[in-house]
Amino acid sequence: MDYLCRNYWKCDYLDPGTMQIFKKFTFDSAHFLPNVPEGHKCRNIHGHTYHLSVFIDDKLDPHLNWVMDFSAIYKAIDPIIKSIDHKLMNDIPGLENPTCEQIAIWLWDQIKPQIPQLIKIELNETPTSGVIYTGKV
Ligand SMILES: [Zn+2]
Fold this sequence. Notes:
With 137 residues, the chain is an alpha+beta fold. The protein has a single domain (17-133), classed as 6-pyruvoyl tetrahydropterin synthase/QueD (Tetrahydropterin Synthase, Chain A, 2-Layer Sandwich). Helices cover 24% and strands 31% of the residues. The chain contains three helices and four strands. It has helices at residues 2-7, 70-84, 100-111; strands spanning 18-31, 46-59, 118-126, 129-133. Strands 1-2-3-4 form a four-stranded antiparallel sheet, with helices on one face. A hairpin with a 2-residue loop joins strand 3 (118-126) and strand 4. Residues 31, 42, 46, 48 line the site of zinc ion.
């Protein structure tokens, strides 16, 4: 089950004794989508208040009684958020075509090396639009 739950993108099963914790971040960034057809509104520079949730899957530490220190998550991710907050994301390497999906991949690639227990991120571009990404299998 361990293999399935850590790699199968639709699996909601949690191993016994495993917990998923999450932390939420917001950032405001500008972007435009250069590859959409002429006349598409997303070709124009505009901005969003993005909401990012990061999900971390691990065992409960029996002494500390937590999965991971929330402040450690914040310290790892805050510099990444600051690197795109109040920026034109198209100027950032890897975000030349910053769709919500591409931003999620970029965030995953930045966060995962620092937090190996990362299992899922959810990125909302608007209150009604977003993406869930679980990395590459
Ligand atoms: Zn947009």
